[in-house]
Design goal:
It is built from 2 helices and 7 strands, in the order βαβββαβββ. It has a 4-stranded antiparallel beta sheet. The chain has a 3-stranded antiparallel beta sheet with strand order 1-6-7. By secondary structure, the chain is an alpha+beta fold. It has one domain.
Amino acid sequence: MKLHFPWPDVLKALEEIKSAKTARPFYGKDLGPGLLIVGDHGIYLMPNTTDGIHHQAGEKIIVYARECDPRTMPFDDWWRTKNNTWCGDDGSNADLTALSDTPIPSPMMISDLAISFTGQQMEISIEFVRKH
C-alpha cells in the first residue's frame, strides 16, 4: 500500500527540522532532529524537534497521509488503511530521519512524499506534479 503526504506540509516539517538545534530522543537514542512516521490515530509524519522555527510559535506539525487522515475520513476507512500498513499496532519509526539531510528539489514540481509499505519494508519516493 502506498501513502501520500502533501508536499507543502512535508516541506514545513523539513523547515522545522533544519532550523532546530535539539530533538527528543527516540526510544532512548539521540538521533538528532529528524522526521518520524507515526501510526496512531491515523498515519502521519512529525518532526521530533523541540525548538525549530514552527515549534517556537507553539505550532505542532503533523502531516497526515491522504489515505489515513482521521480529520477528513470516516473511522472505518482510515482505520482499515492503518491496519493494512501498520499491522494494527500503534508505534513510530525513525527511518525518515535521513530526509533532513537530503537535497530537496524545487517545491513547485513536487506533489507528494510517497511511502510504500511492503511487508516489513518502507520505500520512500517523491511524486511530481503531472502536466496535462
